# Entry
Amino acid sequence: MAKAEKTAVTPTRQEDYAEWYQQVIRAADLADNSPVRGCMVIKPWGYAFWENIQQGLDRMFKATGHTNAYFPLFIPKSFMEKEAAHVEGFAKECAVVTHHRLEEGPDGGLIPAGELEEPLIVRPTSETIIGAVYAKWVQSYRDLPILINQWANVVRWELRTRLFLRTSEFLWQEGHTVHETQAEAEKETSLILKVYQEFAEEYLAMPVLTGAKSPGQRFPGAVETQCIEAMMQDRKALQAGTSHFLGQNFSRAAGIIYQSREGKEEYGWTTSWGASTRLIGGAIMTHADDDGMVMPPRLTPLHVVILPIGRTDSDRENALAYAERLNLALAKLTTVWGGPLQVKIDRRDLNAGEKGWEWVKKGVPIRVEVGPRDIEKDSVFVARRDRGARDKFSLGREDFISGVPALLKEIQDGLFARALAHRQANTREFDSYPDFQAFFTPQNSEKPEIHGGFALAHWCGSPECESKVTDELGVTIRCLPFDRAESGQGKCLVCGRPSPGRVPFAKAY
Ligand SMILES: [Zn+2]
# Structure
């Protein structure tokens, strides 16, 4: 029997998925825990990935008519109290500032002093503070629509945290818009969901389902929440972006009133939408393997890394000179997506194998080795990150250079196809509750193996049936697909009452 190949990351996905995830982040040098409980340090490699995510999304927001602005980090407590459902949803995870000064105490320590008249909440989301500002800006229908996005950090106090997926502080964008009519606000909600879907699929190579949340899973205060849902490699769902139609709930709370074309006073129709550093967690759990991160080429901070190799000083010098010329030629290229090709020579005085593995773990799509024998043939030794780390091939220098943009595209498309195939292979229809139960019950309850997936089943629409499944199996309805009716009518998996179509149930992050 062949011995199992050693992997760069231990444990493997199969051995312990949750621990594998933490170890990939460490091996790829994406982020670190911080001295502040529940908060993460995003390291340069992870932050460069985030910057590319930001730039990609930002371009799409601007192309659909939005502009960026910035609003305060602090929200007066009274603002939060104005929208009842919103308060209920966020109250339990708010960080509250009650003092504004530190004074030296009797034993030399610092004591908070200068109690605030009204406590300030560190924004968990900004509907209320932005609503208060919009109420001043909006007078007439001529002031509408307002289409603004903010890039910011938010704080939601979490007791059980996981890097990129659930941290007390995280980075995100939040869009907040006001419209004259319900129809316009609904159109905005769908437009942004399309942006998120396109970004997830075409940039992150992460296939998603789209739909509306069931009433029980809506954003607190929203009339409708739409979402994108992806399947991770452990077959759990990840909500990767949400777009909320808020109706007039928040404009009533904040007093966003405009004079209509008919001269009447009307409440504005608002939306809000967000995507966060969670997308990085999604990319890791969609593409990374037992050797570390696998960066989607469209968003990777680095496309090609060149590794000069030589045993003797003169070999190394030759290799470096050859690498410099290769670097120059590659740096002139653009990717098929429009940006410049990001290429770098790893000049560090380290063992070649060590250097190579570091870039494998970071997930760089293409690694190129140049050593004496390659140079003699005017060729390079190429490895693609979507294949095994030891799977390398020789290619003439000219052919390699001219083929790089297409190769990156091929890798990007391959990652998407692989993720889609994984989702399809782990999506099943269920009409019997015992079968459904078995699907979501691991064989080994002590140390659950990877199991489950997306279960497409009928649901009557009652919150009781939904919570029964959640309470018994820890499974939630991920969304009510927009094309739900196409799956045909049936009977609710739980109670047998009529259902207008199937919905995906899954365990989720
Ligand atoms: Zn039911």
